[in-house]
Amino acid sequence: MVASLVASACGGGGSNPAGPTPVISGDTGSAGASGATITITGNGISPSRVTVAVGQSVTFVNGDSRQHEMASDPHPTHGSCPSIERGLGVLSPNQTKLTNGFANAGTCSFHDHLNDSNNSLKGQIVIQ
Q1: How confident is the model at residue 114 (pLDDT cuts 50, 70, 90)?
Q2: Rounded to whole angstroms, how far apart are CA atoms 36 and 47?
Q3: Which has more confidence, 95 or 1?
Q4: CB atoms within 10 A of CB 117
Q5: Is the preceding peptide bond at 74 cis, omega within 30 degrees of 0?
Q6: Average confidence (pLDDT) over 118-128
Q7: Beta strand pairing status for 49-52 and 123-127?
Q8: What residues does each domain of the chain span?
Q9: I need a labelling partner for 84 at 20 to 30 A (CA). Which of 18, 95, 107, 123 fits?
Q10: The pLDDT of residue 74
Q11: CA 124 to chain centre
Q12: Residue 110 — very low, low, confident or very high, per pLDDT cuts 50/70/90?
């Protein structure tokens, strides 16, 4: 089932004058089987685009020496793909985490909330 949108802002309160971010792909509520792996390094993420099936999760591996916080677009409100926010959070160096499962087809764009202007830390998850 598609989870209801929980509007959350990283790093602060504030209101969103445009309203809540539309959900592109809902959250299954728990991790599913991993359909792809994205590795974070000092040079960015690889691969920057992966494809998974509905119900699957994506594994994120932090191979960098610093923390990363992968979040769905748009920055800074996030929320377009709750599976990313609810499953990942902060990834410490050498840590591996799974997103929650993606509940429906769509394309989820994401970025590193801690370094949102770095294009090498942006990517897409295509759910089919």
Answers
A1: very high
A2: 9
A3: 95
A4: 9
A5: yes
A6: 97
A7: parallel
A8: 34-127
A9: 18
A10: 85
A11: 9
A12: very high
pLDDT, tens digit, 9 for 90 and up, residues 86-98 = 878 899 999 999 9
Question: Strand 106-112 to strand 49-52: parallel, antiparallel, or no bridges (unpaired)?
Answer: unpaired
Q: Is 0.70 surpassed by the pTM of this model?
A: yes
> Cα–chain-centroid distance for residue 90?
11
DSSP collapsed to 3 states, 44-112? EEECCEEEECCCCEEEEEECCCCCEEEEECCCCCCCCCHHHHHHCCEECCCCEEECCCECCCEEEEEEE
CA distance 116 to 22: 20
CB distance 35 to 53 below 8 Å: yes
Spatial separation of the C-alpha atoms in residues 44 and 64, rounded to whole Å: 9
